[in-house]
Amino acid sequence: MEKGIRIRVLVRGKAMRIQQHELGFFAIYDGHLRDIISSYLQKHVFSNILKEEEFWVDPSRAISKAFEKINKAILSQSSYLAHGGPLL
After folding, report:
1. How large is the average pLDDT for residues 43-55?
2. Of 20, 46, 59, 84, which is most buried, counting CB atoms within 10 Å of its CB?
3. 34 or 27, greater pLDDT
């Protein structure tokens, strides 16, 4: 019997209104080694992006900065969250 790697992929979309802006966030969370990474990302990606001060003036930069912070958080908890490499 061949052993395979179990991958959990979550596809999520979220629409919201903030101030006078309508936003739509869509993401695919691929946990690679464990389901816990997909769940962690689902809980933190959108909120971390919105917390970036540059979001309204430079969304691309804000998204990059948010993912850098998420990556550091995951790696700092790697013994608990996963044994994989960085997200970026």
Report:
1. 90
2. 46
3. 27
